[in-house]
């Protein structure tokens, strides 16, 4: 073999190193990247609140591992353009995706719920505000907002909350039914999580490495449950134990239908049996959910319920699913098994913790790109093409 000295014009294209990108939002290529960045920007107790589950976190792990069983069956030589658009509760959506209700959102980033709502509106997807949110319904603006509701012991207060959501222009009501009592979230107990966070020795030491988070917390409006705790005097541990109504039954749904005439979504369904009951009380949709593994440990993985529930009641109501969704491929899988749309909570909170509204927008963008790529690879041009001919769960 004859060797030679390379010429400069041949070396020059090889000697162009990539610039160093310091912005964690721009640097992120996956949700895992944003999760890693988020863990470096907020105190441990805050990150653990987002990450944690109940008890031994078995349900938390099962939610994600269920997606390992997904197998795609691609159809090739399909051609054509990709359209991720669909309808959710009769409204057009750019993706089969809803940003789920999450509590204490301004604790993750001072921009809080308004930043999430703005990102959702720009992406053309719904966003659900939590009763436990840090922004009041009257102060939130967006194109397709849902309001998540817990039924309180004081039914007059519950009725007032529903009326406020209606007057503020919220389009759907999401009733959470898997929280008769708070789950045993061991990470929060060990971290001594409170709202607002208390300045203990451990939080001060942790906060020394997260000065931006503490500065934003201390120089913006105090954290509070904005929908009902005007002066911020209620402790989080007191709310679920003292104020949520653990005696709510299916018969109470008739009363709720009297005070809310818009779309009604029941969140926290974990069996075909209860999905059938939801259809009988004329719910418009159910969310197959175990509260992200944060309530009953060892509950079923929601993804594994999608096909049997869709087969049983999919012709009477819309079937949504949450829990463990981390990629656009996961969304494609859930839709292919029979879900109308997916809800995500932790994923967009990773983005919010990393970069506020820009971070949430980045999460949606990543999921959109991954969904489009998956659809192209399995030969599905439209969301309606995602079906069980292309998706199944391995035994």
UniProtKB/TrEMBL annotation:
Gene Ontology MF, one: FMN binding
InterPro entries: Aldolase_TIM, Alpha-hydoxy_acid_DH_FMN, FMN-dep_DH, FMN_HAD, FMN_hydac_DH_AS
Enzyme class, broadest EC rank: oxidoreductase
Domain FMN hydroxy acid dehydrogenase: from-to ranges: 23-395
Residue positions binding glyoxylate: 49, 150, 185, 291, 294
Domain of life: Bacteria
Keywords: Flavoprotein, FMN, Oxidoreductase
EC number(s) from the headed UniProt entry: 1.1.2.3
PROSITE patterns: FMN_HYDROXY_ACID_DH_1, FMN_HYDROXY_ACID_DH_2
Catalytic residues of the enzyme: 291
Stretch forming the signal peptide: none
List of residues binding FMN: 101-103, 130, 148, 176, 267, 289, 322-326, 345-346
Cofactor: FMN
Similarity comment text for this entry: Belongs to the FMN-dependent alpha-hydroxy acid dehydrogenase family.
Name the record gives this protein: L-lactate dehydrogenase (Cytochrome)
Native organism: Kutzneria kofuensis
